[in-house]
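User: I'm curious whether this sequence folds into something compact or stays loose and floppy. Could you predict its structure so I can see for myself?
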Amino acid sequence: MKIRNRLNPSQPCFSFEFFPPKTDEGVASLLRTLEDLAPLEPGFVSVTYGAGGSTRDRTVELVTRIKQQTGIEAMAHLTCVGHTRDELRDLLARLAASKVENVLVLRGDPPQGQTAYEPTAGGFRYAEELVRFIQEEDFNFCLGGACYPEGHPETGSRDEDLKHLKAKVDAGLDFVVTQLFFDNAFYFDFVERARRVGINVPIVPGIMPITNYEQVQRFTRMCGATVPMRLALQLERVKDQPDALVQLGVAHATVQCMELLSRGVPGLHFYTLNKSPATRMIVSALRARS
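Assistant: Here's the prediction. I'll summarize afterward.
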C-alpha cells in the first residue's frame, strides 16, 4: 500500500525508521525488533541509506525482506550521492520488481571523510532533481521527502530552506517527514509557514526518544535541532544514570506525541536507532490513552 493512503489525521499511523545492520546477525536482530513492534500495528517502516550510498544493496534487500516476510509496509530511502542516473534507474527498477511501493527521496550525506557534498558525474545535485527523474521515468512509487522544522544546517535561512522544500514537493512528493525535534513549537510554526507558501502535502513529525546522552549531543550538532533548556538541564542531571535517562527521554517524547496527536498530525515517525523498548513504551502509552 502506498503510504500517502495511510496518513490521515482522523486515524494517524505510527511508523518506525531503521538503518541496515552490517552483519547477518544484525539483520536477524533487526527482524526480531520488528517482531516486537508488530503488535503495535505500524503503518510502515523505513530503511535508511548509508552516507555516500554505502548500504545500497543492504537497504534494497532489507526493505524487500520486510515487505515480503513480515507483511509490514516498507519504504526504502534513496539518495543522490554516489550514484549516476543509470545506477539510480537500476535501483528503482529493483525496488519496483520487489513490489516495494514507497521511496523516501534524499540528497544524502557526503561519504565519510568528505565534508562538502559533491554531486556524482552523471548524477544529481539535489533531491528535487531525483524526484523529477523518478516521475519522468514513470515509476509508480509513492514518494516521500525530508524537511527541517528548524532549517537545514546548510541553508542560509529558514525561508530559503522552505523554498527548496516547495520545489521538491512541486516536483512530485506525496508527503514529507521532519527531522527530529524536541520542541513542538518548531513543528507547528513550520507547518504554518509551509501551508502559507503552498506546501499542502502531509507533514509527518519525526520523533527520536532520547536514550543516550552522548548520542543526543551528537545528533543535535549534526542536524541543528534545539534541546529546550529545561530538558537539557534534566538530561545533564541524569546523564550518568542510564535507566533514569531513558525514563526521562520516554516521558518527554510521550508528552510531545500526545500534543502532536491532539492537534491533528497525520502520523508519527519514530527514529528507533534499531532498538524497540523506548518506542514500544511510548506507542503503548499513546494507544492506552486513545
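Summary: The first helix runs from residue 24 to 37. The mean pLDDT is 91.
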